[in-house]
UniProtKB/TrEMBL annotation:
GO terms for molecular function: nitrate transmembrane transporter activity. It comes from the Eukaryota. Signal peptide: none annotated. It comes from Ensete ventricosum (Abyssinian banana). The chain crosses the membrane at residues 47-68, 80-100, 241-260. This is High-affinity nitrate transporter. Residues 1-20 are annotated as: Disordered.
Amino acid sequence: MVACPAQPRAGRRTREKGEAAKAKSIGRILPELKEKSCISSMATAPLLRLVLVVSCIGSSMAVLFASLPNTLTVTASPAAGQGLSPFCVLFLFTISFLGYDMDVCVHDSVLHAGVDQIKVSWKLNESTPASADSSYKKVKVLLCYAPVSQVDRGWRKTDDHLKKDKTCQFKVTTQPYSSGGGGSFVYSVERKIPTGTYFVRAYALDSGDTEVAYGQTTNAGKTANLFDVVGITGRHASLDVAAGCFSAFSILALVFFFVVEKRKAKK
């Protein structure tokens, strides 16, 4: 039998030293990796807690309309009975044919988009202490939908959370708040205002533009001192008047011929 030559002792010692060195390096690396993972987890945990705290604070700082005091008296002209359209009164039965909402012409005033103006005035309530407006820095005035123009219209829905509220979608003006709260602004009804029933609301803002108080031209139920806006439908006003006149004439003619035929039948 041929015996295998014995491996040199130097080669075995070299391999053993290499394996020992690898073991030592692995032993050093593992604690370092564990330490780094612990540090990263410790750094991530406060970050997550911070995010949760910020989200909780944000939700708790949400402004609710029900929490705002009514400290402003807001008025808007035309006053009741002014600006009432005779066309709407005489031809109410042709409103649906002419494209107007059925709730138009049944309130105090009728305005026309792109034509008429509203003078809005605001002041601090007489019953409110003078020091109550110390945090008021601005007054934001908005044109708001009345409940009758919100029915079956989710995009106009009222929400107590002001960031989600869609009642007041049209900005009238934002003015600096003067001492005593008195101020006014003449607003030209924009052409983009759709046909509907409206009221005016004013918010008092603090230095951070956060709503801290309000006032409006209507009552709490939003049923008084409302006004209507007739939006632009793409037709000229003279065409609407002519259509209304012809509609009224046709009805009168029908009644006239009916009476004539009845008299002939009696003879």
